[in-house]
Amino acid sequence: MTSDKILLRLPFNGDYPVTFAFGVTSNREEIKKKFEELGIVGHNGIDFGLPEGAEVVAAAGGKVIQAGENGDFGISVTIQHKWGTSLYAHLKESKVSTKQKVKADEVIGLSGQSGSAFGAHLHLGIRPINTDLNNGYRGYIDPRPYIKSTISIKSIRGTKG
After folding, report:
1. CA gap 79, 89 in Å, rounded
2. Whole-angstrom Cα distance, residue 157 to residue 4?
3. Which residues are designated catalytic?
4. Tens digit of pLDDT for each residue in 130-153?
5. How are beta strands 55-57 and 107-111 bridged, if at all?
6. All domains of the chain in start order, with CATH
7. Do strands 122-128 and 84-94 pair parallel, antiparallel, or not at all (unpaired)?
8. What is the DSSP code string of the chain?
9. CA-to-CA distance for 114 and 145, rounded, in angstroms?
10. Which of 124, 61, 57, 60 has the alpha carbon at shortest distance from 89?
11. What residues contact residue 126 under an 8 Å CB cut-off, 6+ apart?
């Protein structure tokens, strides 16, 4: 299935800004170093400025294939969809378990700052099936074109990280 079949909703209810966009690099040395360690050329997801403890919801329905501690992503949830996977990272806690089926809008966790995070936020990453794993982002692509809700470009703060 191609990426044009991806349909997402925002992974939260309410109005939170984008604080670190897809593909952006950072001026912060610790973030530059982390990108180098990971072998990525820029940010491989979108960070939203959710305060700690805000509810995170599934951007699309699917089956949970990972929930809990996940290295640099901290506590995260990964959901398998017909088109690929979505990742919700740096959570305070997961509210789902592996093999659980979830619907779009269902609460899957609470935002936090676990793993390699520099403050409370939600990291959303998507990776389609048959993606190019050597695309510089470990196969992740920009979620923004697939989100039904409008994300204002002026809300993007770029390199806060």
Report:
1. 12
2. 27
3. 121
4. 999 999 999 999 999 999 865 443
5. antiparallel
6. 3-155 (2.70.70.10)
7. antiparallel
8. --GGG--B--SSSS---EEE-TT---S-HHHHHHHHHHT-SS-SSEEE-PPTT-EEE-SS-EEEEEEEE-GGG-EEEEEE-SSEEEEEEEEEEE---TT-EE-TT-EEEEEB--SS-SSSBEEEEEEETT--TTSSSTT-B-SGGGBSS---GGG---S--
9. 27
10. 124
11. 6, 8, 45, 59, 84, 85, 86, 87, 140, 141, 143, 146
For residue 84, give both structure tokens: 């690929």
The residue count of the chain comes to 161
Return the pLDDT at 2. Answer: 47
pLDDT digits (tens, 9 = 90+) for 83-127: 999 999 999 999 999 999 999 999 999 999 999 998 999 999 999
Please return the burial class of 132, using the count of CB atoms within 10 Å of its CB with bins 0-12, 13-18 and 19+: exposed
**76 in Cβ contact with 66 (< 8 Å):** yes
